[in-house]
Amino acid sequence: VYSVSPIKAFSDNYIWSITQDNHPQCFIVDPGDAKPVLTYLSETNRVLSGILLTHHHNDHVGGAAVLTQHFPDIPIWGPENASPHITHVIKDNSHVELEPFNIHFTVMAVPGHTLDHIIYYDTRSLFCGDTLFSAGCGRAFEGTYAQLHESLCNISALDDSLLVYCGHEYTEKNLLFALTVEANNNNIQRTLEKIRSLRQNNQPSLPSTLQTEKKINPFLRCHEENITLAAATHAGKPLTTANEVFEVLRQWKDKF
Ligand SMILES: [Zn+2]
Q1: Out of 40, 86, 154, 249, which residue is the most buried by the measure of CB atoms under 10 Å away?
Q2: 179/176 Cα distance (integer angstroms)
Q3: CA of 230 to the centre of ligand 1 (A)
Q4: Ligand 1 centroid to residue 53 C-alpha, Å
Q5: Is 164 helix (H, G, I), strand (E, B) or coil?
């Protein structure tokens, strides 16, 4: 059984570290900055054994150059062209084996935030970069709203028990938006109380679970009546498809 812990970077990024008891190795996901990773490695007496990248944005890949100078032969998995340091180009349905850990990730392409965005998951964890956030989702920078919505629906179809490791600490602000969409959702109210107390103690709000996200995340529930009505009221016109609801919600959140 492996452990996952956050390494904070920039103002609100999380670089995720994957470790296993009695092993000095560690794998990291989305090192936007090398410095906090190197500090973490020296503080925990670990050696870097590999890097997993989700998409090409610099706050997710920018540390790879310096880390490969310190650890020249490590494998770096990522979508094509996300970083010049990638050794293993992966795509939808690729498999990633973390040796010597007994970890097998499956890759899913989730275009929308960027066109190259991929996620990694196994039976326990989901590393979703900037596509799914707790109570929210990434902006549609490169893809269409329909593309991003389809990607989120595909993530939503994965196992409810998955622990969700996102790329940013955006949960509290996302929950405030979710409450604006759905003021009477008790799950959102309860989660906001819990997350506020974690954040006041400087604890990460993550991981979430996919099961929790299906209750609190409006972007995963665009087919539901409550959300559709709220989006239609905001847009001032009737909305008929979940894709239309998603687009209104995402644009509403952009200005929130
Ligand atoms: Zn991004």
Answers
A1: 249
A2: 5
A3: 27
A4: 11
A5: strand
